[in-house]
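Attaching the record inline, Q. Sequence:
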Amino acid sequence: MALLRHHRTERTVLIEPELIIGRSPSCGLQVLEPYVSAQHATLRWGGARWELKDLGSRNGTFLNGVRLEVGKAYAVAEGAEVAFGSEAELWLMQVASAPQAMAIPLDGGEPITPENDVIGLPTSDSPQASIFRDIDGVWKLETLEGDRVVLDSHKPFQVAGRPWRFASAETLGPSSSALLASGNTPVSLRFTVSRDEEHVELRAVHGDLVVDLGSRQHNYLLLTLARARREDEKSGFAEPTCGWVYQEDLLTSLHITSTQLNIDVFRIRQHFARVGLPGVANVIERRPRSKQLRLGFASFDISVI
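Structure, as predicted:
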């Protein structure tokens, strides 16, 4: 995460991987001063450092008091002072670490960054869509209907009637690289269910790693989908057809709303990502348009105590 702080007002701005500064409403950092050009400068992550470039502004861009040559990229270190159009209006490079991916609301508001490569929109408390880095390393948007769309940096989209824009650095983060490297080893789930089914304990096994996922409310959703998959396996169904359950049937059997179902799916993915398990996007799979879901992991066992 990287931050710019305005010297006079103390305004803090989360820096997206490629930030355009200027007066134009399309700029990631809009500075409404007469001495600032419509598209004045860019601050861009170069893979190992931040680089500042003047875009041909009328009044210049300044780094530590020195006016930049137009079109030339200059390294910006933590603690550096930058100014756009006037040396008196200073911004401090408060934090110069690598940028995070983020969803930026185009109708105003703060960007939303991922927690363990998962973003819930419009909020994580009431997600109507999810953004996640899939096992192939590509950022994707999944809707309530199960449609998945590849998100390119700066690609606009709509969620909950609001316009958003996605921003991401070109390089993969270290946590995602680790997931990709381990993605060929399947995750196996271990359910332990009380006889009254009030408690569902869950463990995940991934290679030599055993993760205790505890007893969570959303574990029962996973258990329900696991049982549906097991029944289809016993009936001799082919693997691609095993375990698919219609959303309406899930809502009825679990006595929950579609909103709660979507929250549970989001929290399951977030929980798996938080403990470093791969394939979080496919813990629960969705079939677009048919509104069917299933447990995406084929290896599991269920014990009743």
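Confidence is low (pLDDT under 50) at residues 171-183. The longest helix spans residues 258-274.

More tomorrow.
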